[in-house]
Amino acid sequence: MEKKALLSIGDFSKITGVGIKALRYYDEAGILTPAFVDPDSGYRYYSFHQKALVDAIQFCVELGIPLKQFPDYTNADEPASWISYADLVGKGEEIVREKMKTLQERLDLLKEMRKEIHRAEESCQRNRPEKYSLPARDCWIVPYEGRQFSRESGQLTNKIILEIHRNNMRLGNTGGLLLLRQQGVWKQFLFVDVHKDSAREKKTPQVIHIPRGVYLCKKVERSGIEQVWDWSRPHVKPERIQLVIETELFVGNYRFSQPVLEQRCLLDSQ
């Protein structure tokens, strides 16, 4: 092919919008071989028709299709002779649908976080018991009799986190104290949240599911889950309380050094 009928690598870079370094890399990777390489200068030259191949490569780059898979969509013997756009588009649709699903899940999570921030700030401002409908959660629990933010609770929390990781489960963002009534006796635990999907995929005896429900909630000034019986008594009968959670409130301006605590009583459906 006559060199004069071709585009230099610089001109080809301009019309495709792909950098010269990238074009050289595509050549080295064997997915975009120049139409002609000057044997004297080593300069690369391309035909205009190769722009379609570059567009297909960029399509893969934008969608996250590994370039090592690109030959799967071209003629194995002559990589530049044809491109299976139908297969590329099909793969692209699959990837985009998965990304859309992930983005929607993240958007739903952000909406829930914003909703919780608003509720937390409301709880702080009112500083009195209020009923709220709160989502379900899955927790890794370990028996524990002390308070939060002690040396003992910190060490035990770290052990729980490592156990969650060793069990290939996704770690949640919150933890705290939990009171459960077992065989008529209240027992206290330390808990760390685990992601609901990983909790369902791999069941372990240390993980419990706490259903969505109506909670009587109140901000407290210090850790100590036993104080729940003092502030809740004027508002609800003790037998209506199914469990108690003490955890941090995630207000709009969250301070790691001075967390705000809230105690939550899950009420029966009466």
From TrEMBL:
Pfam families on file: MerR (PF00376)
Domain of life the protein comes from: Bacteria
Coiled-coil regions listed in the entry: 93-123
Listed PROSITE patterns: HTH_MERR_2 (PS50937)
Keyword Repressor: yes
Keyword flag Transmembrane: no
Domain HTH merR-type, chain residue ranges per copy: 6-68
Listed Gene3D superfamilies: 1.10.1660.10
Keywords: Coiled coil, DNA-binding, Repressor, Transcription, Transcription regulation
Stated name of the protein: MerR family DNA-binding transcriptional regulator
